[in-house]
Amino acid sequence: MGKGMLMEPGPVVYFEGNYVPVEEAKVSIMTHAFNYGTGLFEGIRGYYSADEDNILVFRLPEHVDRLVRNFNIMCMEIPETPEDIANICVELIKRSGFREGVYIRPLCYKSELSLGPRLSGVESRFCCYIIKLGEYCDIESGLDVVVSSWRRLSDNAIPSRAKSTGSYINSSLAATEANLAGFDEAIFLREDGSVAEGSAMNMFMVLNGQLITTPPTADILVGITRNTVIELARNELGLDVVERPIARTELYVCDEVFFCGTGAQVAPVRSVDRRVIGEGKPGPVSRKLQDLYFRVVMGKVDTYRSWCTPVY
Ligand code: PMP
Question: For residues 222 and 202, what is the distance between their CA atoms, to the nearest angstrom?
């Protein structure tokens, strides 16, 4: 990517309790979240199904659930209920009239104009916007990735599981370093040297017939795509899925590596630190999971149809 993603937003956003034109949704420079990074957000995809002429929002309740659970980390309270949040996400797409892939960004932030980095007793608000979004990274040929010199934030510093706005400085540092060095993406190690995740995506490897990913205690954001991949791999492909710490050099000797996330979807990796992985192209397990994932998000697999919320 290198440059920031160009965005075409929906014309209407949700801001301070109302639907307003995107140009009108502005916050003060004194806003707590602007000064201290005290926001919590989600990223959700809606897939356009030409067959149904509808947009299907993928795992909307799970995203809302993760967001509101994280309120407890950040001592947040907002007037909107989880049902309101889900309805606002759908309503914004309806109001845009878009008939293509969209990305929904619900954001709770410490809205008070107050000085001092603290969390409790600081007022929060909820806002939400949507943009059009296609591919976020190359998912066809395989990514060239590099282990970052930046360490993943530890749970006792800034918890990755919270998906807080401020924590994305860490992601930005790693992604920037990787891009400036000519790589597509970064892999974060933890303070103990074991693997955590990508800059904005989780990671899996295939080794000795197992599909292995780092556990929820490994300073990762516990991705909804990750959970989806685990479920599909176990139930549909009969794979042995293991959550355990991963050492850096296991990535050099394994058969396949892939990233996954709402933005990245299922993105195979072809090299790590200039070492070719497997055959240097997306491996069979990555391919199978990618195919299945796209059929599921497009509402084509009955068993998982309930993961898709139709908009129109
Ligand atoms: N890790 C990080 C740091 C992320 O930003 C994301 C993207 N939200 C993920 C993992 C993947 O999470 P999800 O599958 O829920 O999008």
Answer: 8
